[in-house]
Amino acid sequence: MTGNKQQLKKYIADSRPRFENLLGQLVEVPSISMDPARAGEMPRVATLAVQYLKSLGAEAQVVETGGYPIISGGWTTGADYPTVTIYNHLDVQPAQEPEWKESPFAFRKDNGIYHGRGATDDKGPALSALLGAWYAIEQGVPINIRFLWELEEEIGSPHFAAGLHNRLAIPRPDSVVVSDTIWIAKGKPAMPYGLRGLIGARLTLKTGAKDAHSGVTGGAARNPLAELMEVASACVDAKTGKVKIPGFYNDVVEPTKAEIKSFLKSGFQVSKFKQAYGFQTLRTQDPAEIMRRIWAAPTFEVHGLTGGYHGPGVKTVVPGYGELKVSMRLVPNQTPEKVFALLKKFVAKLNPNVKVEAEGMLQPFQGLFEGPYVEAVKRAAKAGFGKEPAFIREGGSIGAVVTMQKAWKVPILFMGLSLPEHGYHAPNEYFDWGQAASGMTAFAHYFEELAKMGKR
Predict the structure, then answer these.
(1) Which of 80, 190, 417, 451 has CB atoms 3.0–4.6 Å from 439's, for a disulfide?
(2) Where is the Peptidase M20 dimerisation domain (predicted)?
């Protein structure tokens, strides 16, 4: 099967130059799916991905979706063997923050630390899974391994379903494993079984044709920024985070006692959470309550308020236009459509001149908390990292997961490799060889565990 420990260890050590070379090439393609100016980079990253798969003896193809494509490929070793699909994404967030110490798309390696946008989200984990799979195939593990690499995850996977329904290109697997999640802390593996949903919205208000002098018009002129701030304050308690939209919590399913117990076993520490994300203070210091809030409770967040003057000093104008950018994270059994309707109705009552537009909707996901697939993940993670993972929920959203669940109705598990300090969506993002190497080990063992289980 996967051979002895020393053989696998040697394979991984020998794979390091290949891993670093492949990751370097991927990171230096600025595959920013939300930036129209980067549209030409998406075919480049798709071509690289196909080359990577084919260089390891896998078949691979680009699947058109009507938007940016999906890369589908892998090894089919036997019709009677179980088939697993590994999902990752190769598009990345923008990298415009002034805090970047180096160019975000100039790959740099520094003693096992790999710098660059996309290194941990999600190009490094994708390559770790790929090289772990190649080892399993080379060792003759009786399993079919398929890869599904998306190029639109960071914009909510708007065309993923269209690509998935191309049955000739993407066959139905027996199970799916996703490697696009974050641990609680270094040395503390965490595998989520649930994801929060998401709905983004833009609230806009136009009260004039242009900005006006506040000394001449102030007091009589409406101020759209002040009115939008009033709307935001009516929607959410800024100090507690409690959402005040009527009916918002009606469908929320609270986590069970068993789930909270699993959260507490995770080793979550408030001090390390604050350190990893650069927080000075939090809304609460209670670990159980923090975990409930970030994994299993819905939210309302304000992301930006634009309009008026943003230069140095104070320019005394009354803006003619304002825009408020917000989002809401959702939990089972909330639905984006219903929550958006509640928001729109509430805002219309507060201020009928405010226009509310949706910016993407993602359903929440709840997967397996126990059973043979969960046990397989536990054993694989322990083989790779020396510890069984805590089973938690993930506070973020992955649109493709819900689409795969609806289309295939197969078990979907998570084996993320990223750490909080790696900087998901943050400046100075990086990945590290320790997580990559142990991830390869974990994936190699996971494929063997699945092979023992047989077809679903």
Answers:
(1) 417
(2) 193-353
Between the CA atoms of 451, 56, 126 and 456, what dihedral angle is there, to the nearest 10 degrees? Answer: -20
Of 307, 338, 361, at which residue does a domain stop?
A: 361
What is the model's pTM? 0.88
Residues facing 182 on adjacent strands? 418
CA atoms within 13 A of residue 81's CA, in its CB half-sphere: 19
Give residue 378's domain range: 5-195+364-453
pLDDT digits over 215-255, tens only?
999 999 999 999 999 999 999 999 999 999 999 999 999 99
User: What CA–CA distances, in Å, run from 426 to 92, 120, 351, 406?
Assistant: 11, 11, 35, 31
Count CB neighbours of 43 within 10 A: 15
| Per-residue confidence (pLDDT) for residue 305, from 0 to 100 | 97
Do 228 and 355 lie in one domain? The reply is yes
CB 327 within 8 A of CB 244: no
Distance CA 443, CA 371 (A): 19
At 29-78, the pLDDT tens digits run 999 999 999 999 999 999 999 999 999 999 999 999 999 999 999 999 99
- The phi-psi region of residue 66 (left if phi > 0; otherwise alpha if psi is between -120 and 50; otherwise beta) is left
Q: Specify whether 246 is located in the same domain as 142.
A: no
Confidence at residue 165, expressed as pLDDT on a 0 to 100 scale: 87
